[in-house]
Amino acid sequence: MRILVTGGAGYIGSHTCVLLLEAGHEVVIVDDFSNSKPEAVRRIGELAGRGAELAEVDLLDRASLDDAVAEAGPEAVVHFAGLKAVGESVAQPLRYYRTNVAGTLNLLEALAPTGCRTVVFSSSATVYGPEPQLPLKEDAPTSATNPYGWSKFMIEQILADLHAADDSWAIATLRYFNPVGAHPSGRIGEDPQGIPNNLLPFVSQVAVGRREKLSVFGDDYDTPDGTGVRDYLHVVDLAAGHLAALHRLVEVGGHHVWNLGTGQGRSVFEVIAAFERATGVPIPYEVTDRRPGDIAASYADPTKANQELGWTADHTLDAICADAWRWQSQNPEGYPD
Ligand code: UD1
After folding, report:
1. 25 within domain boundaries
2. Domain residues for 101?
3. Exposed e or buried b for every residue in 270-299, given b needs 16+ CB within 10 A?
4. What's the CATH code of the domain at 15?
5. 155 is a domain residue
6. Which are the catalytic amino acids?
7. pLDDT of 16-36, one tens digit each?
8. How many domains does the chain fold into?
9. What is the per-residue pLDDT for 221?
């Protein structure tokens, strides 16, 4: 198939593009490089032995997007592009709603006149809100606590309404838990600009000497060791989940929501220990106050994706840490400009 991948140069997008190309699909990346580098696109081609096409377009530039979509002639779209920093979204709500929600509307409107009605959307377990019933199933109540989360919530609703209005649209909403790790080659990985918000990138940067120590955001949660518990899944497993969802969607159509997670909760202290074990590098840390907006624990019930997609996230936390470290140690400053 010809597949348009928005945000294809980003962290999850780049891993998904490699797998799509390896599976024999043609890939057209739409990316504005606002939070990614062209070098990622080059390395996708290097890993897959075959390049992706590239359209450097901002989803908010409607005329250029229409042209890029028409020229690409996709049969399906995997939509990653969007802003994703929770704290920044609280400070800049309009920018988040504009980029994420209006960007998605532009994309869907650009697709409408083409024959392409198949969309896989990058959502987040953040839509389960502040008091999740664990383990999280897809029919759990949804809400949000910040503009980033609300933007994912709103886009999910838009996609559901679109399918309800016209069931020739085939839609998969994928709710990711915590994507971590890197391609086992060490050639592509997560390259956060500025100070990392998320745990694994911060730990990796401490290990490589870019940061002095990790702040553990609270050890007084109601969890086994008091630190926050999350469901960390290998980004290559997550990328494979997109292929499985896409292939299923092409077979059966419809509108589906799938959790992509391991089903296992791991604490911050368990992540630190796994990273030290996998790399032999000690991670200095101090326990600080809780981060506003954090919840004690979140992990998936991935049964629906396991059964309907024949997909599981089976990389261990140790494998995840080893791969994250290979990427970080080989690319201490991330991708070159
Ligand atoms: C965060 C976002 C979530 C988003 C996801 C994207 C918040 C509140 N939530 O999820 O909406 O979908 O990223 O990947 O930002 N931790 C530390 N020290 C750090 C960083 C994190 O102790 O320097 C802890 C956190 O308190 C948490 C765990 O590590 O218990 C994981 O944090 P993080 O990687 O930021 O992911 P989430 O908070 O689950």
Report:
1. yes
2. 2-182+232-261
3. bbbbbbeebbebebebeeeeeeeeebbbbb
4. 3.40.50.720
5. yes
6. 148
7. 999 999 999 999 999 999 999
8. 1
9. 98
